Amino acid sequence: MKLRGTFLANLICLDGMLSETQADLAFRVRRGCNRRRMIKSRPFRFRDPFPAFVRILASAGVLLPIAAGAADDVLRFTPSRERWTVQSEALVETSGVAPSPGDGNFIWALNDGGNAPELHLLNPTGGDQGQVAVLGVANIDWEDLDSFVLDGRSYLLIADTGDNASRRKSGVLNIVPEPDIRSGRADGVITPAWSILFRYPDGPRDCEAVAVDAREKKILLISKRTTPPVLYELPLIPPPADGPIVARRLGEVALPQTVVPAIPYANQPTGLTISPDGTRAALLTYLRVLLYPRQKGESWAEAFHREPVVLKAHGLEQAEAIAFSTNGKVIHVLSEGKRQPIVSYEGM
């Protein structure tokens, strides 16, 4: 997604809401802020949904959740001090990322709509390990990527589900066999093993958050522009159909509140990933990462209906890609743009 438009930032600086240090920082990074009243900035065009001052406040802890949910030891993920950079010159609008099921040391990534239909391979430090062309499909609006193992074979799911104007009559999920990367490089071409043409039961939806639950052979999708977001489900292996199959609506997704509620797009879902053991899901937004734990015997609809555990803000310019590592102990987050940093949250 390419963001353009008017940004109207309302920075609330009220006594008692921010510490003196936080308030002073807010004052410095937003010139002219009166700490006892709401200030509206002039409209301006932007590429980054969160200008520098918002990311500074987020990383400083000023943009705190009102309620962060009840975390347990399993859910304590903190940003790693070590950061790598995406070195591939071809990855300019990263909108999806997934670990390699065949070799967890590598990461697959893809570009947003309008770019070549290719899958790019990165090494553990963000190095460029080549790319593979996907034949027979177009990159209309690729918005997410996931990997999974089914019947002993490794696959990648490409989610062509973006719809900024909510006009597409259907979306498509292309499932391709994972390319052979035993040489440490990716090259050549692949074709989809199967594709899923689908539509939503309640009209067109813009969707950038798609993940596979291989244990239950289901695909989860979360709408981006509805308030609140809505959770949908599709079968991983659908029965034969003459036209688009209809996704099942599971319910609304609970989101936390923030002390700066007027930041636009802050809670819009831009990526989704499920832990390998199926016990939690991580939902990416432009501001942060939200963890949804799932209890034994619980459905995903029930898990997403509870308030999530909020991780520390990632501070990226336009975060649109997220993935658990193959062991579930690390969460990787990437942003659109050239040579962007890779933010990794490590489980404790």
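Second entry:
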Amino acid sequence: MQYGYFDDAAKEYVITRPDTPQSWSNYLGSTEYGAIITNNAGGYGFYKSGARGRFLRLRFNNIPLDQPGRYFYLRDAESGDYWSASWQPVGKPLDQYQSTCRHGTAYTVINSRYAGIATEATYFVPLGQTFEYWRLKITNESERPRQISAFSFCEFTNQWDTFQDQVNLQYSLFIVRGECSDGLLRIAIHDNLTPTDEATLQSDMSSRAWMALVGAPVVGYDTSQSAFLGPYRSYHNPLAVEQGQCRNSNAYGDNACGTLQTYLTLQPGESRELLVMMGIGEARVVGQQMVAKFGSLARAEAELQKLKETWHAKLGSLVVETPDEELNHTINVWGAVQLPYHLCLVPRRQPGVQRRARRPGLSRLGAGHFGRRRGHPGGSPGPPGVDADRTAGQRRGDSGDTAV
């Protein structure tokens, strides 16, 4: 079965249906601020080390495959129906829901259509920065006005050391705090032990995160995962989305999440754009500074173009044309794209991973993926430069990939 194709002109791999046999992921960011995102917006984020600096949570060997992640939920006020801007986590029937993912050079774009609403979600990390953009464009393709609620969602770790976050719950559950401070979500670990002088808060990147919404007013928020999801629920049916209203919850002795809610009224044919900014550092200092400097749709677009131009400039110095189309894809784009990622993100301490990754163009993420070496059932190759997500190294007891 065919799940996508190479678009070498755009330097993107296009995934045309979301129910891929494994989740296919893309690298965003740098060795300082790394982000992994799959074709269904699953994935995590880390600061310098995927093992000791992971600030966005991903559960290893989980079912479903790649949850949680960087999500937008949408809810129609008239019908009460809700869905996600990526096929997962809500997972609407594919005879009603259309989704296309474009994995590019350090950015990912996910387009979807459902119930007369089209969305385009773009994710990337600006060059040299320690925050990321989630840009969402919503278009009313129906013939009537629509009242839409939009919710962001990600799940923060309670301890940036991945092993401690996943295992040592009697400790990690009691050291995180989440709140809304001056319009930004503020997530802090060991908040009571950190000096509050501005110099410290300016330089402290080790245990704090923030989230902001640009382009529409914030009408609700949640920083408590249990308040947002509700009891005995999961990412596919969060209670706050189902009921259409966040709880304005503050996490304290709880799992922390990042949810900002807004209301939109869309006339037939009308489009609106929202911008979520999420990064590390003290929200009251670093977060406010980043929003003041980078917090506009125009600036986000400029940063995206700069990112593309920088990466595309690295390509093109060698172009081959052979009878083998897959070889052309690998040499001209995907092999060249993957090389700097592997030099930066594959850990030195696991040479066996690098040996398994020798097949040209097929990337392995960090500790190596549990997926087959071929990304499609029946032996057809998976897309070079796009990972079949999740780490087999976790079964060997490793806690994650580490930036070099």
